[in-house]
Amino acid sequence: MIQDILSTVSIWAIPVFLLAVPLYGAFRRVKVYESFVEGAKGGFQMAIRIIPYLVAILVAIGMLRGAGAIDMLAELLGPALQKIGFPVEILPVAIMRPLSGSGALGMAAELIQTHGPDSFLGRLAASAYGATETTFYVLAVYFGAVGIRKARHAVLAGLAADAASLVAAVIVCRLAFA
Amino acid sequence: MLNYIWLSMIILAVVVGGINGKIENVTKSGIDSAGNAVVIAIGLIGIMALWLGIVKIAEDSGLMKIVAKAIAPVMRRLFPDVPDGHPAMGSMTMNIAATMLGLSNAATPLGLKAMEDLEALNTNPGVATDAMCTFLAINTAGFQLIPATMIGIMASSGSREPTAIIGTTLAAGVTAVITGVTAAKLLQKLPLFSVERTCRKGESE
Lengths: 178, 205
What we know:
The complex is a heterodimer.
Chain A: H1 2-27, H2 32-40, H3 42-49, H4 51-67, H5 69-83, H6 91-96, H7 101-115, H8 120-130, H9 135-145, H10 154-177
Chain B: H1 2-19, H2 23-60, H3 63-70, H4 72-78, H5 87-100, H6 104-119, H7 130-141, H8 148-156, H9 165-187, H10 195-204
């Protein structure tokens, strides 16, 4: 029920927004076409401006993936985490999540396929994937767009959120599905 | 921070790739990613232009101010450094709304517009402000009401109940947002991350 409402809202949100904004603009006597074109001019520059930042971060992440470093890290951390009852099968997905969205999605889909979509691990992988964004990608694009090179505490805050949501996913899934 | 992280990633990749005998993979994967970064950026141009155009109409008509005022009580607490009625409040609000609805095509351009508005308040070019870091903490948490991608994958994998994960994903997502914002707010007070220190370090490098 709630899900139906939300998915209807999602489907209609963009067309309604694309209609409502120019309509309101016209009502307030804005020259909507001229205004739109003036604003749209910035799109090209902004997309081009993020390229160096995106290249830097995606190349580093690509090299890490190519090296098999993520699996290796998971193997290193696994034994310690297993002792405290952490399901280690999910670890590679969790490490990949802040680095590469498509990479983590592929790994989560694989877990879901192998263990079954209605299994504890399948649901945990899905929940953990859906609960956060690709931290490093967001940082590179957002900071890149305005030429920020000193991220200060943003990286740490983003990774703290990823770690906390992973722990929360494990606990909540244990309670709900195990 | 990014200097160290970036360098460590590359060192780790080459060393681990060497040990694993995957050094050719490291090269290929790195080069492919460089090309891929440009594909992603170029792909953004059209959507960026569309949303920046719409946002400009919203600005010129005063709609952004109305949006900003509507949830000012919440936003003022999250972003005390951003003045009331500043365009950044409007664009950040629209970005967060788009993210929650899972409209990533709209969320990114609106988020980048918000960063541009926040940059207008920045007195130290190249150094992130407190407001930017808090805003990014919200965005890296990426809170969605419906995890549509995952529900789709669950359904296509033959799940009997693909929507079962909505509740657990929400719970973990709320944890991510709260932790991210709290961490950003606490860390911004640390001397290690202060703007002054970051600026001084930048000069000596």
